[in-house]
Amino acid sequence: MHLLKHAIVVAVSSNYVSKVVGLASLSLASIVIDETIGLIKRYFWQNYVTELEVSNSDKCYHWLLQWISKYNEHLLHFSVTTVCRNTESGHATSKFDYEPSSGEHMFKYKGHTIRVKRDRSSMISSEYGSRPYETLNLSTWGRNRQVLNEILEEARLYAMSVMELGTTLMVPSYDTWHNFGEPRIPRSLSSVILDEGVIENILKDIHDFVDDQSWYLERGIPYRRGYLLYGPPGCGKTSMIMALAGEIKYNLCVLSLNDSKMSDDQLVQLMGEVPSKSFVLLEDIDAMFANRDGKTVIEGSTKVTLSGLLNALDGVVSSEGRILFMTTNYVDRLDSALIRSGRVDYKQYIGTCSDHQLSQMFIRFRPEGTTDDKSRFVKDVRKYSKPVVPSHLQEFFLLHRHKELNYVFEHINDLWQNVQDIQLTE
Ligand SMILES: Nc1ncnc2c1ncn2[C@@H]1O[C@H](COP(=O)(O)OP(=O)(O)OP(=O)(O)O)[C@@H](O)[C@H]1O
């Protein structure tokens, strides 16, 4: 007993134990300080900070990112998304979209400091596959919902005004649609030269459809319309769709089923998410389904099946009011199920140049020509008894745009240079 007492006295008086006790009190103190700071922060956060959280499943998520990038052109931390698509001419194009990077950003808005926190750490899985789950937190000091509401409204108005500048192309991004570049100046209807009545009739049909929603609803008919444009390449199918979209101020959702990442389920989801006032465009639909068993697709490495596409086109989630355009060079290769009425309500052949188109294209490219020149041009072209593709005619006029008219007449044969015989699929 005496020995134990002695040991304790020695230990307490030694340096070692006093250091241990000192360290323990220090760490206890730091825990208490941390907790207190945390409590104070939480108190201030709950009472003196206004916060808005938006997830990337909501439309305004991209509006906000777009607006923040525009409003803060000097933002130092940004991320880039590269969007690619094939153009009307078959060439691939791509562009960069800049947005605030993940992490924290600060900016001033009407005298208020706004903190933006973009979090893109996790993936969420749904029946349509997994996609990144992102959130955007906007916060500001004070009880100030108004300022965040104003930002949201400005972002909305900015997105709307951008869309109204022209036709916005949209391409799929996971199970939703993503803008592809800035809106394009709409192509005028008069720049697409087709046979008389072709554009006018289709435009009237679209107007009738858009104005007749209640007619469809009253009769229980799905409120959708499908158009099929078919004919040889380069005759103006895509140009007409772009011009129609511009004319009625619609956007264009371009769907490529050859995308190897696209699945049947994703397609269903995309069809259900088509933004209002948008055409859906499925180009070269014949190339997508080389195998007609409806299960496998040979061209490209797509996972989309014909039955999957049919489901997506008339499934219950398919957007009401959807206007679908499909184009093909080979209408006879299409599965009849794909183009039955209800899926395709309006078919239009867009072929090689008629006399009317030849003369209209002549006037468009050579406005200095007289009425006689116009008739001579048509007559001279017809002497060759070969079909003329409008895109070749456009190239021909571009090639000889600085030449005299006489030179043009003497070189009409150039129209068919390097051009294989066109197969007519009327
Ligand atoms: N009828 C037309 N009027 C004016 N320009 C035309 C016409 N047809 C084609 N063009 C011009 O030719 C080019 C190709 O046209 P477009 O892509 O619209 O043809 P397409 O029929 O959709 O071809 P594809 O079947 O290969 O997709 C465009 O630059 C367009 O300006």
TrEMBL record:
The keyword Secreted does not apply. One of its GO terms (biological process) is mitochondrial respiratory chain complex III assembly. Keywords: ATP-binding, Hydrolase, Membrane, Mitochondrion, Mitochondrion inner membrane, Nucleotide-binding, Transmembrane, Transmembrane helix. It is a single-pass membrane protein. One of its GO terms (molecular function) is ATP binding. The keyword Transmembrane helix applies. It catalyses: ATP + H2O = ADP + phosphate + H(+). SUPFAM superfamilies: P-loop containing nucleoside triphosphate hydrolases. GO terms for cellular component: mitochondrial inner membrane. It is found in: Mitochondrion inner membrane. It comes from the Eukaryota. Residues 19-192 form the BCS1 N-terminal domain. Residues 223-354 form the AAA+ ATPase domain. Belongs to the AAA ATPase family. BCS1 subfamily. This is Mitochondrial chaperone BCS1.
